[in-house]
Amino acid sequence: MKFRWILFVTAMSFFLPSVCPSVSGATERSDAIRLAKKAENGDAAARGTLAGMARAGDVWAEIVYGDLIARGKGTKPDPARALVWYRKAAEAGNPVAETNMGAAYYFGQGVSDDYVEAAGWFRKAARQRFPAAENWMGSLRAAGLGVRRDPSRAFFWYEKAARHGEPGGMTNLGEAYMEGVGTPRLPEKGVFWLRKAARLGDAEAEAMLGSAYKYGQGVPRSFSRAVDWFRKGARGGDAMAAYGLGICYARGQGVSSDPVRGYAWLTVAQAMSRTGSPTAGIIARERGYLKRRMTPEDLSRAEGLAGDLLRRFSLKSERLAG
After folding, report:
1. What's the rounded Cα separation, in Å, for the pair 10 and 122?
2. For the segment 177-222, what is each residue's pLDDT rounded down to a tens digit?
3. By CB neighbour count within 10 A (0-12 exposed, 13-18 middle, 19+ buried), where does 179 fall?
4. How far is residue 29's CA from residue 297's CA, in Å, rounded to a whole number?
5. Is residue 302 within 8 Å of 294, Cβ to Cβ?
6. CATH tag, 1-118
7. 85-120: pLDDT as tens digits
């Protein structure tokens, strides 16, 4: 199962659904977010007000102010200082803050990485039915990080997260059904959950649906439908979707054979992937193989197209490997 590689949960807290319990003495979350947005735009008064609310013990202000510090909005990023504010809110029982604490310990952001400590914080939030934390617990159980590896418990947490509306949980649940991890292999159910996640814009789910159609898993085999889903996932920033699209162009599967476009999309996939990851290795191998079969003229065209695509996706070309 795949982890969601984010800095902190509150890096997305402006868009979280209202799934958290109310906190006594806390301002409305929307008020804290409104002040944070003003602070991001350089409003010093709003930043001061938010900081004052956090110092006074307002839980949502603590979380949102910590988020500003973690992301370096208006100041240099300082994960350790942000963690002080997250911890205050977490100790008050806020599940968003508890999940942030788990993510901090998992990634070693502002604190030494500690999977056991991470699992403890995620568990606290998951017991409050916070979907992101439930999904994290599933991923930890699947990988055996900080807890005993247990595919059936991973499935249990993924299902909870999915049914509570977490797109990542839906994707992980769909993948579990597709691969038979912690549950009998049921591709049709896998596709059902992947579709739900894809409708919510989850690019990883879109990539998996592309693979499902390419290989006829849970759906009738269709290269053209595979290309459609790979393209959606690639535009959403998923490396494996861009890889799948590149391979389809290179091999003429669902589209006319076009090595130039194939190499361009593989280059985009390389830029999207984490350096040193297994995904990056797979992409680099296929990209290198295709490169050896191309003329210098075609390669030049492909690199130009890749540059255009990378600029469109706001990726930096210096991240490319090889």
Report:
1. 14
2. 999 999 999 999 999 999 999 999 999 999 999 999 999 999 999 9
3. middle
4. 56
5. yes
6. 1.25.40.10
7. 999 999 999 999 999 999 999 999 999 999 999 999
